C-alpha cells in the first residue's frame, strides 16, 4: 500500500494535535471547576456554622444586657430594664425606628446606648454584637435620627424659680431658669481641620454648650463647635440662632466667670484677695524681686517693635520646626526674643513683655475677626461702623471684652496677623442644635430600607430634597452642606448580595458549566471550520509556490507559515505575480 503524500500526513497530524490540545484544556477546566466547587461548598458550610454560632452568641449577649437583671443593665447601658423598654417604645412609636429583617429595635437601641455609655468605636461594638462595622454604623445613624425626633420630649421646658421656692440653694435666685456651661468632648477630626479642634489644654475636642434646669434636666444643647472656640462665642451663636436658646424677659441663666454679665446671663463677681501694702513692700525688699500684676512693671511698645514682633511671628508660623497644630512649640517665646534682637540689636526686652504683647494682639485680632464675620464686612468697613455707630460697638464690648479700646483707634496689624492666626480659627460650620437637626432631617428626606448585611435582599436608597432654609439662620450653611451631602448620596445605590441556599447555588453552578460548554462548543466549531478552510486551500498554495520557483524545504516551510492564518492565504492570492515572491521571502 502506498504511503500518503507528505502534505496530507502533516495536515492530519496538525488536526490531531489541535483536537487533543482542546480536549485536554476542556478536561482541565472541568477538573478545576469541580475542585473549586468542593472548596466553595466546604467554605460555605463552615460559614453557615459560624454565622449560626454568632447569631446565638448575639442573642445571649442582648438578653443579658436588656433582660437578665437591672444591675447588669445599669452597669452596661446606664439605665434599668424598665427605662430601656420605655426608650425603645418612644423610639419606635415617635421616632419611627422599625425592626429590620435581622435586627430588632431593642438591639439597635442597645448598641446605640452602649456606644454613648462607654465611648466605644465601631470595631469594638462589631465584636461585642457580632455585626459588621458597616451594620453598626448604619444602625447607629438610624437610631440617632430617631432620637433627634424626641428632643421636644427629652429636653425640658425651662421654668423660672418662683417666689415661694423652698430650696435653700435656689431661694436667692428668683427668676433663674437654670445654669449653662461648655464642656469638651474628645473627637477625631480630619487632619487638615485638627488645628481648629485643639483646646487650650492641648487636647483635640469639640466644645458643646449644655443648659440645665435646677433639677439637672437638660434644656438646650448645642454641639459641633471646634475646641478652640471660646465659651462666649458658642453662647453668642446659640442666642443668635432662630431655633436657639431663648431667654424670657425678666429671667436669666447662671454662668461661670468665663462668660460676661449681660441681659439674661448672670456671672459671679470676680473677687481677689487683699494684702496689706506694708507686708508686700517688706516682702519685695527682702526677696529683691520685681512686683507683678496688672499695670506693674509695664512696658510701652513702639510701632517699629510691634511690626518686628509680627514679622517674627509670621516667620515662625511658616517654619515647620516651630509651628504645630495648635500654635507653636514650647519655648517659642525665647526664639522670638532672639529673632527680635537680631533685627533690632539695640533692643532690650524680656520674654514676659513679648508674651503680654502677643496676648494683646491675638485678643484684638480675634475680636475684630468675629465682628467682621458677624457683620459680613471687611475690617475697613467695621472700623467705619465703630466710628459711626457707638451703640453697636458698646453692645459688642459686652459680649467680647477684647473689643475694648477700638473706638477711634486704628489697628493696622489685622491683615498680617491673619497669616498667623487665621487658619486656626474656629468656624462653627457643623454646629447644630436638636431643633435645627430635626428640620434638616425633614429637608433631606432619607428613606432607608435595610436589613442585615449577611442575608439582605434589599437595597438602600437615599432620597434627598433640598428645601429652602431660613436666610437669617447661622446654621443654614451647615444645613445646606448636610443636605448637599445627602443629595450626593442619592445618586448612589448600595446593593447587598442576596443569601442563597444550597439548591440555588447548585443550579447556578450547573448553569455556569452549561454556559461554558456551549461557549467551548462554539469555539471548537469555529476552529474546525477555520482548519477545514485552511486545509482545503493547501493544494492551491503549494501549486502557487511551485509556480513562483519555490521547491523542497522552502516550499513546505512557506506553506506551513501561510496556512497558519487565513489572512495570509487571502493576501497571497490577492497579490500580483511580481509581489508574491517578495511576500513569501518575507514570511520565511
Automatic annotation (TrEMBL):
Residues 57-149 form the DUF8040 domain. GO terms for molecular function: metal ion binding. Its cofactor is a divalent metal cation. Keywords: Membrane, Metal-binding, Transmembrane, Transmembrane helix. It comes from the Eukaryota. Residues 301-389 form the Myb/SANT-like domain. The chain crosses the membrane at residues 12-33. The keyword Disulfide bond does not apply. Residues 180-278 form the DDE Tnp4 domain. PANTHER family: MYB/SANT-LIKE DNA-BINDING DOMAIN PROTEIN-RELATED, OS01G0523800 PROTEIN. This is Myb/SANT-like domain-containing protein.
